[in-house]
Structures are given as C-alpha cells and as structure tokens.
Specification:
Blueprint (H helix, E strand, L loop, with lengths): L2 H25 L6 E4 L5 E8 L3 E8 L2 E8 L2 E3 L3 E2 L3 E16 L7 E15 L4 E9 L2 E8 L9 E7 L2 E4 L4 E4 L12 E4 L7 E2 L2 E4 L5 E7 L7 E6 L2 E6 L14 E4 L2 E2 L2 E7 L2 H6 L2 H4 L15 E6 L1 H4 L15 H13 L4 E4 L23 H11 L2 E7 L4 H6 L1 H10 L4 E5 L5 E3 L2 E3 L4 H16 L3 E4 L15 E4 L7 H4 L9 H4 L33 H10 L4 E3 L4 H4 L3 H9 L4 E10 L3 E8 L5 E7 L4 E6 L14 E8 L12 E8 L4 E6 L4 E8 L3
Parallel strand pairs: 23-24, 23-31, 24-25, 25-26, 26-29, 29-30
Antiparallel strand pairs: 1-2, 2-3, 3-4, 4-12, 5-6, 5-11, 7-8, 8-9, 9-10, 10-21, 10-22, 11-20, 12-19, 13-14, 13-16, 15-18, 16-17, 17-22, 18-19, 27-28, 32-33, 33-34, 34-39, 35-38, 36-37, 36-39
Helix pairs in contact: 5-6, 12-14
The chain binds 1-deoxynojirimycin and calcium ion (CA).
C-alpha cells in the first residue's frame, strides 16, 4: 500500500472508531449532563458539556452554588482537549474504606466517596476520561488519557491545563506569590479580586458565608506543580513551565507518554476550621503504600549541629568554627541519649561547602570521623540524620544516588535531610524550576531510591507536598516554608508572631513541615534587630501545632540546659499520633491543637498566639475517647506564659504546674503577646 493509501486507511479507521463511539453514545442515551453527590448528600458536583464540546463542572454545598460552571480540559500541541469533545459513557460508583497510616496525625483514615468517570471522545478521535470524586468534605477531579485504536500520538506536550474554579463571591484568600523562592514567604490574605499575581498552590479561602475552602493538588508524580491565578473573578490553573537552555520559560508544561493520568485537582469544603484541618482528602487521593516492609520507617525527634551555623557561631565549612567535628557530634549524641531525643542531624560534615557547587556526599572533612561516630551512635542507640545539600545540583546528586545512599546505609544512617539551595535546580534536563516536571521527577526518584536503602527523607527546598507520603512513607517531612532559620538572619527582623498561626491552615494542610521549632535563647549577637518573635512557651506550643514526623528541636544543648524544666516537654512530646484535632483557632491569630500519642492514652496540647494577648478556653472533652471512662483522672502538666511574658520584653517568663483533670474540665489559659502554651496529659493509674 502506498504512503497516501496508508494514511487514508488510518484516517478511515480513526473516523470509523470515532463514529462507532458516537453511535454508541447516542444509542445508549448517555447524557452529557451528569451529577453525583457526596455520601452524606451535602455536596453535589454537576458535569455538563457546554457549547463547542467544552466540559464544565459545578459544585454546590447545602444547595448553595460554591463553584459555578467552570472549565475543564488540557491543551496540548497535538490536540486541544478543552473543546470539541463529546461524552460517550459515564459510570458512577461508591467507595468506602478505612486504612492505616504508617505514621501521621491519625492512625486510621476513612475514605468514603462517590465517583464518576466521564468518558469523552475528541473530534480528532482522541479519548479522554475525567474522573470526579465527591467526599463529604470536598471534591476532586483528574484527567486520564488512555491509548485507544484511534490514538494518533502516544506522546503529548501539554501547553495548558484549563481547570478552573469559578467562585460565586469575592472571598478572602490566603496565598503566596508563585515565584516565592522555595515557598519561603509570609502568607497574606486579601479578597480574590485583589490577587493580581499568579499564586502558589495551595490557596486557603475564608468564604463570605463563614465557611472555608482549600484548593490544592494530590499525587503529583510526573507533571509540573500547579500554580493558580485570578482572571475575571475565577481561579485558573497555570502549570509550571519547562525552561530552555537560557532558563527562559517554554510553552511546554508537561511531556506525557500515554496512557497518562494527571494529578488530582482538589477542593476541600469545610464549615469550620477544625473540619478543615481534619480533612484527609489529599491522602485519600494518593495511591496506597508502595513499600512492602515499612518497619524501618520511624518518626523521630532530633536535635542537630545546625542553629549555630544560622546564628553564625559555627560554620558549615572546615575551619576554626567548624560545627560538624567529631568532638561536637559526640557531645550532641551524648546529650540526645541522656534526654531521650532519638536522633542528631549534622550539617557541614562533608566536602564541598567552600563553593556550594560540587558537594561530595561520601567524603567527610578530616575532622569528622564517620566510622567512629556511626559506631558511637549505634552503641548509644541514637540515630544520625545525614545531610545532603546539593546546592541545586540535582543532576550530580542523582547520578551518584545509589553510591551515596549505600554509603549512608553502611554507616547506619536511616534518615537524610536533602537541600537544593539555588533559584533554579540543575536537573538531568538542564536548569529547571524545582516545581517543574523535571524537578518533580527528581524528587520522586530520590524518594524511591532512598526507600531501597531504608532511608527516610526530609526534603528542604522541595516542591510543595501533595500527599505522596501515603505511597512513599519514607518521605517524612519537607521544608517549603519560611522556617525558623529566617529568625536568625533575615534582614526584615524575623517573621511576625502571626506567621506560625497561619501555617497550620495553609502550608501544613499540604503536608508535614520541617519548620524547626524549639528556640530557647532569644538574643541574636550577630543581628540584634533580628530575632524569634516568640516567648519560650510559644516554642513549646509549636512542637505540637506544626506537625512533622521528623520534628527538630533546633536550639543548642547549652541553651536547653538553661531551662531544663521547660525542656522536659520537648523530651516527652512525641511526633506520631493516634488522633489529632484543632481545639480552637483563627487563621493569623491563634491556634490550639490536641493530639493523642500513637498507641498510648497520653495527650499533648499546644497553643500559639499572635501579638494580641488573649485568654483561651480548652475544654478537655476530647479525653473522653473510646477506651477511657468519663471518670478517668489525668495528671496535666501545664507549661504557660508567666504574667510578665511578652515576646519583645520578656520571652523567658513562664510557669509550670501540675493539676488533676478529667474530660469534664476546661482549662483557661492566658496567651502572652507572641506567647503560647503546652500541656502533657497522662492517665492516672491507681
Ligand atoms: C537551607 C536549609 O533550609 C537549611 O536548613 C540548611 O541549613 C541550609 N540550607 C544549608 O543546607
Ligand atoms: Ca530553606
């Protein structure tokens, strides 16, 4: 057959397939208007095919339209899958399950949702299915691109995703500008109509009806991270682009090989803040655990040779003030051992810190005796948290990954903090944004390779988390936040007190955060005008409020020993939970979390405050769980701001007292300016 005949035959085949599907859709009476409701019927999602074959959806809660008809689809170089589509089939199903987390804010998670798969065919013959899920607390959708007989191209270059969220009112939104380096910025709130910049995902909405919404993505694996922008009152998607060899954005956003599935787009809808933080939609949208034996994955608290570098009393590179020396590490390991801290981080132990260009991850500085320290750590039963700063040179890191992880595993190191300090990262594809498709692939490759060597990852300068820790629970925690380090050296004087009271409702809804709480000394000899805007009790409260399964207590041992009584809370507080709940809070003002230790009846409460002094009520009704009777008595140890406490004038004023409580009691606690509190509540056994 000649070339032209072959092309004609192929086209004829495609058209035949297309018309057969069309015929089927007409005969089966598949309507292009469909809907599903959440299992409790409070949320309804409707789908329609608008004029021109443009798919759209609408979301209502309690009969009120929250997201009005909004666009769906993908635009690719090869085919525009946002119009010219027709519905050929639609299936609906219900799902109900409960699964156990390897670690987390909760041991058991319920996944109850309705699902609808709308199969479509494009006029070119290309097939696309949009999956929708509706939970009692939100909705999600994603695009599936199968390979069918009529698929013309098995690779697609996505240039735009048109997913849209057309809110029906001018709600207040908490956000970060999309180019905020490593997401290390202060979240700000303003009405949607005033958000002029493109924004990072996620976004947290305070709706005009008093409830809350949260837009983010789940299961980001081989696709660029989404960003969002406001246009004509609606929130639209902007995918992080690929960059050319001059680091200029290309039209290409994602290269897909079919069959392909995009990450989930999700919107949490919650009537109250406690409901918002209790939503587990993002984890439910990720695939179940891909690691068979997870016994080596263990949440841990750690201290580290770290704060000294940021406060400039130590250096990463070798020299007179070198931090990661054998002597110093030995001191930290012994301190950790005697204070029940599971692990010690050491930064600056390896060659390369002079230039930050080519780090060597298997050669220590001469004053670091890896063999001695690793056997000392193992004798003491204290873990070493390794540190791999790449300076953004992801390609070099990736090339040697197996060798690097083999070296760490050989020295008994089961956790590594990775770092990518550089405005762009150098991946196998050249200079790219870390949240572009190439960066996303790199981070995932790191997690998968680390799992082979039983290594847990704490990823600094990451791509915003999307719940991947369900599938790869060795991805423990990530930075992606303006963390404590900014309070050491930021020229703006340090983060305002309100900063940490915003994070649990914005950044941390996307996943665990390595914020590094626990400062006990507030003087900054290098930058006297820069400091931690917090009382000492606030630092204890952070240990509970800012969730991380690898939780760092960041200050120096000598500073902890200035307040051994307050340090006791850090010694005791765990970082893996049976249950967690927000007792009370207001975004940017204060928050109080209560968490039950995993596998135990002990509870820990943390509270943090902005600048405004306030008294908060903490009803202890949550103690009335399934396993305890309502008469059960508990010993509550309360760590509170003293009467004179104030972050600026007197951060060290605090009281510690014990009292006996039951679930019928309510604690009334005064929070100082920049203050906080913490409590340990333990059942009294007669
Ligand atoms: C930035 C990280 O966030 C910080 O924790 C680390 O100390 C430095 N990079 C050096 O790697
Ligand atoms: Ca950082």
């Amino acid at each position: 057959m000649c070339k032209y005949c072959r092309t004609f035959a192929q086209k004829f085949n495609d058209m035949k397939h297309f018309f057969l599907l069309l015929l089927a859709s007409v005969l089966l009476g598949c309507s292009s208007r469909q809907q599903i409701s959440s299992p409790d019927e409070t949320i309804r999602l409707c789908f329609r095919m608008a004029h021109g074959g443009c798919p759209q959806y609408q979301v209502c809660q309690d009969g009120q339209v929250i997201i009005d008809w909004s666009a769906l689809g993908l635009v690719c170089d090869e085919v525009d899958l946002s119009s010219g589509l027709r519905v050929v089939d639609c299936t609906k199903s219900n799902y109900s399950d409960e699964w156990q987390t390897v670690w987390g804010e909760e041991r058991l998670i319920r996944d109850v949702h309705s699902e609808m798969e709308v199969q479509m065919i494009h006029r070119s013959g290309m097939a696309m299915t949009i999956s929708f899920r509706v939970f009692n607390d939100g909705v999600a959708f994603r695009y599936n691109l199968p390979v069918t007989e009529s698929t013309q191209s098995k690779t697609l270059t996505v240039t735009d995703e048109v997913s849209e969220y057309r809110f029906t009112a001018d709600h207040e939104v908490w956000s970060l500008p999309w180019r905020t380096e490593y997401y290390e910025g202060i979240w700000t709130k303003s009405p949607l109509s005033q958000k002029n910049d493109t924004l990072c995902s996620p976004l947290t909405f305070e709706l005009t009806n008093g409830s809350y919404a949260f837009i983010h993505e789940a299961a980001l694996k081989d696709y660029p991270a989404q960003n969002l922008y406001v246009s004509e009152g609606s929130v639209r998607t902007y995918l992080t682009p690929w960059l050319d060899s001059n680091a200029k954005p290309l039209p290409a956003k994602a290269y897909l090989t079919l069959p392909a599935t995009t990450p989930w787009r999700m919107v949490i809808l919650a009537k109250t803040l406690p409901e918002l933080v209790a939503s587990r939609i993002m984890l439910n949208l990720n695939e179940p655990c891909a690691i068979k034996d997870t016994s080596w994955i263990k949440p841990m608290k750690f201290i580290g040779i770290w704060w000294g570098m940021h406060m400039k009393s130590m250096t990463w590179e070798a020299g007179p003030k070198h931090g990661a020396t054998t002597e110093n590490m030995k001191r930290y390991l012994l301190f950790a051992k005697s204070h029940h801290i599971e692990a010690v981080l050491a930064e600056g132990w390896n060659l390369g810190w002079e230039t930050w260009e080519h780090f060597d991850f298997t050669t220590p500085y001469p004053d670091w005796d890896m063999d001695y320290l690793s056997s000392l750590a193992q004798d003491l039963g204290v873990e070493i948290v390794g540190h791999n700063e790449t300076g953004g040179n992801a390609a070099e890191y990736e090339k040697d990954l197996d060798t690097i992880y083999r070296y760490h595993a050989k020295h008994g190191i089961h956790a590594i903090k990775t770092g990518y300090v550089s405005p762009f990262i150098r991946t196998m594809d050249g200079l790219q944004w870390n949240k572009g498709q190439s960066g996303v692939r790199h981070y995932r490759h790191v997690i998968e390779t680390a799992a082979k060597y039983h290594i847990m990852i704490d990823n600094h300068e990451p791509v915003m988390p999307t719940g991947l820790q369900r599938t790869y629970p060795n991805l423990m925690t990530q930075e992606g936040v303006r963390g404590q380090e900014w309070n050491a050296w930021s020229a703006d004087g340090g983060s305002p007190c309100s900063h940490v009271t915003i994070l649990p409702f914005t950044r941390i809804l996307a996943g665990p955060v390595d914020y590094t709480p626990g400062v006990f000394a507030f003087e900054n000899p290098v930058l006297p005008k820069t400091r931690v805007h917090s009382t000492l009790m606030n630092q204890l409260g952070l240990m509970v409020c800012l969730y991380s399964p690898l939780q760092m207590a960041c200050d120096l041992p000598e500073n902890y020993m200035k307040h051994p009584d307050a340090f006791r809370f850090i010694e005791h507080v765990p970082c893996d939970w049976e249950r967690s709940l927000l007792v009370d809070g207001k975004i940017g003002e204060f928050c109080i979390f209560a968490r039950q230790q995993r596998g135990s009846a002990n509870w820990y409460i943390g509270g943090i405050n902005n600048e405004d002094v306030r008294v908060v009520a903490v009803p202890l009704s949550f103690l009335n769980g399934q396993t305890q009777s309502s008469e059960q008595k508990y010993k509550a140890t309360l760590y509170q701001d003293g009467e004179k406490a104030d972050w600026k004038t007197n951060p060290y004023d605090f009281t510690i007292e014990e009292q006996s409580v039951t679930c019928a009691d309510t604690l009334f606690i005064r929070l100082a300016s920049g203050g906080g509190f913490a409590a340990e509540i333990i059942p009294i056994t007669e």
